[in-house]
Structures are given as structure tokens and as C-alpha cells.
Amino acid sequence: MMFDDPSLTPPPSPCCSSLPPTQKPTFIYPINPPELVAALLEEHDDETEQAAVWVLPYAHKPGMSRKLNEAIREQCEQLSSQKLRLVVGCTVHAGDGEEGGLLPEEVLSEALEGGAKAAKLHCSVGDYDVLDRRLRQFYKLAEAARIPVVIHGGLSIMGTTSTEDLAHIGPLCREFPLLPVILGTVSPNSSSASNKAHNIFVSQAHAGHPSTETALLLCALHPNLYLDTTPVLDQLISFPKSTPPSQLLSLVLKGRILFGSDTPTVTVTRSYLAFDVRRWIREAVAKCVGSLGIEDMYAEMGRIGEEAERMVFGEAASRLESGVRSVGEARGELKEGTKLKGKL
To answer: 169-179, pLDDT tens digit by residue?
Structure first.
């Protein structure tokens, strides 16, 4: 998204692109917020249901998070309507508060009071690590608030995630087992809206692409870890052929894979992304019920397929959003001292 204050927009970056730095991608969607909202509504063909979008910002330098979060909150209020609900997201930087101002956990507390329902960390653009000790109190409060945190954990400026980058996700999930962690990435702009559903529920990420096999293994070990289907600009995520279809389908039905498009900084349409997601869902369903008789098989494929698509395209995101607690509830849990006794 664009902002009146140029300090909120990071410098141009090849992040999340397989293109060489000298080649600029051709984005399909407009960057201007009102135009982007209009484009999303044009694609939303269900007149009976309000669309919803998670708007997830990220801070590329210390000290800018509060200003960026406030800008996002104002835009969400201004552009929401009966047809489209913009869900307020927020961000922090590990270096917040080092030169005055609020610390990361204080920035989060303020954002929660302002109605934030999701948070975003972008480690490569912010130049910090997932396990940066300056984020410890942030994670404590985020877990107590049950706010989902979308994490771009890789340090590559190209937006991809290596197996080594994912090594820090496991310890984070173990130390904060009630913190919903979504493996994600984001675009080269200050915020983006990713679509999560027929109701355009939006989130970012690409399941640790290209290290998807490791990401799936981590999901098996940590029930608070989620994946989403966001492409790396022009690359769709893909699951290894060796992935058991039952494992993939189980994650989907449990609400642990969310549809994400990284709109507006993508070079493929949402409809194309959705088509690809439905393709691998249906392939997984067909393989799981293939041993049934022909009549029962088609009935089960239809039933399970519809349930799986409903979960990926909105229900999973809606459940995470509805689970977010107030700052008062979160502070009360922390005061009791019943959670978060480990250390990073």
C-alpha cells in the first residue's frame, strides 16, 4: 500500500522475487489502496457475504512501527464497507525502543488496543533473526493474546527460505506453544493484502518455499505452526511428491493451511492461485478416498473437498482472528505467571 508519509515505505527491494535485481516485475493489482480495494471487490462475486482482508504491514527499520500501525488502522477504517471488511494487522521491529520510543511488546500492546487481529515480522527486510532476544517480551504478549504472527523468517533478500532459516522456527514454537505462528513472506511494499477465501481472507506466506518439505516436518512436530499458500511473487509453492496425501489433507482440515496471495505485489491473479490450490486439494482428497467403491468415492470426494476448500479459503483465518484476546486478558494471564517460563 501507499502512504502519504514516504518514511513508511521501504526502499525498492528485489525481496520475494525470482527475477534479477535489474528486472522489475509487472504487478497485476494496483498499489493505491482505494484502487486495490475496488479490484478485490470486483473479483468477489458473492453478493450475500461480506469480504474480509487481513492487512499486514511490516517495519523495515526501528522506530517506525507505531506510525505504520496507525496508518494501517486508519486505512482499514476508511476503506472498510458493508461489502469489504479490512482486518487490522500490525508489526514491530526488533530494534524498536533502542533509541527512545516504545519497545516491541509495547508497540504490540498499543496495536491490540487499536483492534489489531494479526501481526507480521519480516526478518530479511528488518535485518534481525526470529529468535532475536529483543523480541522475547513481544512473543510473550503475543502468545498471551493468541494473536497470529506471520513470520518471514528467512534472511535472503530474494524472499526465499532455506532449511537453515527454518531451524529457528521449531525453538520458537516450543517456547511459545500457544502462539499461532504462520510461516510467511511478504512483498516489497510496506503492507499487503493477501486473500484467504471466497470472502477474500488475506494472509501472506509460502509455506517456507522452497524448503516446503522441512516446513511440513515442523508442522508435524508443532501444532501451533501454520502454513499458507502465498507465492514468491511469480513462483507458486509446491509440496514434495513424497508428501503423503493424508498428511496434507489432515493439515488442511485442521485449519493449518491458509490461502494467501500476497496481493497486490504478485504477478499472477488470485483466481489462478485459487485454481492451483483447489487442484492439489482435490488430488489429495482423491488419493485418500481412492480405495472406496466408485459411488461412495465420489460422494466422499465431494463432501471432503468442500470442507477442505472452505477451511483453506477462509474458515481457518476466521478461527485465528476470532481467538485473539484483549490486552487486559493477555496481561492478566502474564501476571498469573502460568505461561512462558522458558527462554530463547
So the answer is: 999 999 999 99
